[in-house]
Amino acid sequence: MDGAQVGGRADPAIVVRGLRKSYGDVEAVRGIDLNVPRGEIFAILGPNGAGKTTTVEILEGHLARSGGEVSVLGFDPGNHERSFRERIGIVLQSASVDPYLSVGETIELFRGYYPDPLPRETVLELVGLSAQRGTLVRRLSGGQQRRLDVAIGLAGDPELLFLDEPTTGFDPSARRGAWEMIRGLRSLGKTVVLTTHYMEEAEYLADRVAILVKGAIVAEGSVEELVRRGAHTTIHFRVEGPSPPGHLAAEPAGDGGAYVITTVEATAALHRLTGWALEEGVELQELTVAAPSLEDVFLSLAGSSGRNGGP
Hints:
The protein is built from 11 helices and 13 strands. The protein is an alpha/beta fold.
């Protein structure tokens, strides 16, 4: 991995082997491996202090690694080659732009930094700001300013786009609009690396997810794979009368005869529960079955770290 291009577009966008980063005696990233195909939206999740930002800054070329191999679009980002920077886009949590320029002028300014930028009107259309091309930056809403941040990242027509917490502070409607914009980048063949604190954002957008805890990847795969292998279905119910027998594995969940069953075999557990209720002639009240979610998986893997500093 010497910084030269390693092949055609069939090669992965990102290949990481044994990546490490230390700050004195503190090891922030502990030997992680990644493989991100081109054209994929890849989400990196983790509680605060898990190593997400450190990892992404190494991939972007902003931070030197302590060990391991990294190839991004066939380049070693640590070599700081201009040709590498011309092929990536970076969208930080907040961008510093002149508030007295118009949206169109801002995009035109950043287009000038690249040898083969996207046409300005194409960028405006991609991020949904065509109607605001003449609006001053300082007059944009929060959601529109975030779209402008993405427009700046897209100005150079990058093959790979890094998105850092793209919808922090958005209301639900603005967040959904931003999601559709990001999903549209996949249809253009862009590769997107996304860091987010919103589990539903990763579920909606990401082809694959990596969960970092204390500098190491503890799970990686599609959302469906992670949910299938790493979380349990919960069955909540309330019953008056006899307590559920031990074979149902029902745990008290508050006062008034409330119970919960946590299981990886939801159908069988529900069958046993309803069978017992029929035999005893009791009614199962407030019966709910909650399928596992990515957040369940995250919390089970991140433990107290996720609860204290994560989503």
